[in-house]
């Protein structure tokens, strides 16, 4: 067995033994489903003007129709994609842990809903969800599921106050929901094992979670196509596609478990 396979097997064993585990995912986990990542070649944003127009509150208030039409397009794209083997492996690992009475949280920066579609249960969505909307006036905290795209009116109206609904996503310059950050931080603090999958680990506060977990004793495992700023802080780092490495780890975990 070579060193790489030996490390995979060791992580497989840790996955079998962990009673409290969490995962942090980023755009890379959905790349093999056909959703572009943000940074790097073929990244999502064309230019900075587009970011200002489509992914800030100011842009939305300037032209809500344009922003909603763009989200219709993204939701139409999202409907065409399916979870990949990486998403399914994480859902299966959660099931194994919860079946043996352990705790599991999947913290994601993605808004595509693919982890839930694959069967993950305890999903903490740091940056929101493209399939939900909420009142721009914050008349309530209610999250409103959106009908199939295209919407009948742009912008859709809040059923409570009649104001505009906005997509339930975090835009540039906006803070994350403190309740969601608290949930994610607690999961990181209590984890014995944390997998960090497909994120460039550059955007905070998400990027701080592995360090929070490590400071409380968690073993950090990174899975990414390439090294990131987190790599040197991780006990294990596997470089390759998450849709291949995660199912491999899960298979090894099954072998190690019994
Ligand atoms: P990035 O686009 O910054 O990084 C994607 C990472 O995934 C890179 O490190 C790639 O090497 C890696 N990757 C790509 N394909 C992969 C594959 N098949 N298997 C494993 N790894 C792969 O995306 P995020 O880190 O998710 O925020 O970006 C974080 C946040 O920045 C996003 O949530 C978004 C953006 O601004 C908001 O919109 C609020």
Report on the structure:
α9 links the parallel β7 and β8 (219-224). The protein has helices at 3-17, 28-31, 48-54, 57-62, 64-80, 85-99, 114-117, 178-190, 209-215, 242-257, and strands at residues 20-25, 103-108, 123-125, 128-135, 144-145, 165-169, 193-197, 219-224, 236-239. It has a 6-stranded parallel β-sheet with strand order 3-2-1-7-8-9, with helices on both faces. A 3-stranded antiparallel β-sheet has the order 5-4-6, with helices on one face. It has 2 domains: 3-35 and 82-127 and 177-256, 3-Layer(aba) Sandwich (Rossmann fold); 48-80 and 132-169, SIR2/SIRT2 'Small Domain'. It is built from 10 helices and 9 strands. The longest helix is centred in the N-terminal third of the chain and has 17 residues, at 64-80. With 258 residues, it is of the alpha/beta class. The structure holds 2'-O-acetyl adenosine-5-diphosphoribose (OAD). 2'-O-acetyl adenosine-5-diphosphoribose binds next to α2 and α10.
């Amino acid at each position: 067995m070579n060193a790489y396979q030996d490390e995979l097997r060791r992580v497989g064993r840790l996955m079998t033994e962990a009673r409290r585990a969490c995962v942090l995912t980023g755009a890379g986990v959905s790349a093999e489903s056909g959703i572009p990542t943000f940074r790097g070649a073929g990244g999502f944003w064309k230019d900075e003007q587009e970011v200002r127009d489509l992914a800030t509150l100011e842009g939305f208030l300037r032209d809500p129709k344009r922003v909603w039409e763009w989200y219709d397009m993204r939701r139409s794209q999202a409907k065409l994609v399916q979870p990949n083997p990486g998403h399914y492996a994480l859902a299966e690992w959660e099931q194994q842990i919860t079946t043996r009475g352990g705790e599991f949280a999947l913290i994601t920066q993605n808004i595509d809903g693919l982890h839930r579609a694959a069967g993950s249960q305890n999903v903490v969505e740091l940056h929101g969800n493209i399939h939900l909307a909420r009142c721009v006036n914050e008349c309530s905290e209610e999250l409103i599921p959106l009908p199939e795209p295209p919407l009948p009116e742009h912008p859709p109206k809040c059923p409570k106050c009649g104001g505009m609904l906005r997509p339930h996503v975090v835009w540039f310059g906006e803070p994350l929901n403190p309740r969601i950050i608290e949930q994610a931080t607690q999961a990181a603090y209590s984890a014995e094992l944390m997998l960090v999958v497909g994120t460039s680990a550059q955007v905070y506060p998400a990027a701080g979670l592995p360090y929070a977990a490590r400071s409380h004793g968690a073993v950090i495992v990174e899975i990414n196509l390439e090294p990131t700023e987190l790599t040197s802080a991780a006990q294990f780092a596997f470089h390759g596609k998450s849709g291949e490495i995660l199912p491999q780890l899960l298979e090894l975990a099954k072998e190690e478990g019994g």
